[in-house]
Known about the structure:
This protein is of the alpha+beta class and about 170 residues long. The protein has 5 helices and 8 strands; from the N terminus they run βααααβββββββα. Strands 2-3-4-1-5-6-7-8 form an 8-stranded mixed β-sheet, with helices on one face. A hairpin with a 4-residue loop joins strand 7 (about 120-125) and strand 8 (about 130-135). The longest helix has 12 residues, at about 150-160.
Amino acid sequence: DTGAVKFLRGEVCWHRNDAYYASGDWRAAYKTAGGGVIINQAIHTLDLIRYFAGAPVESVRATVSHHGDTAAEVEDTAEGVIRFENGARGLFYFTINNDCDEAIRLDIHCEKARIESRAGSCTITYTDGRTVKADGKDGPQFCGEKKCYGSSHTVQIYDFYHDEDGSRARW
């Protein structure tokens, strides 16, 4: 038991250049893409922050910007703070201005433990000193010949097929 969630942090630091935007006519404009880094690269991380908070969103203070050198119209950076009705606070930073695609970072601070997830592995460090590690390799696979992109997709697909009302977390 990790206790109540107090704080969450999600980071996506990836790289997208003009060649990426040119590879799909829809990618560079709000009219056709609907947005940039939030909707196209970081949406699953934002969903996980909301899911693990375990309560409805109370408020969001955030900015979205285009800081990079691409010709794209859509935002390439977003950062903000989410306050949840249960008192938890979430912090997020998403950018596609990094020099490479780094592992997604998701940290959850609870009353009795800290949970850190990086590149498909998860470490839970309890306040009493115990540590539990999981590498995600034993998780379910639903993609047949094609691998799911990222370990969180596998978990989300598992939850979708095994929990129709969305009330249970797998981890």
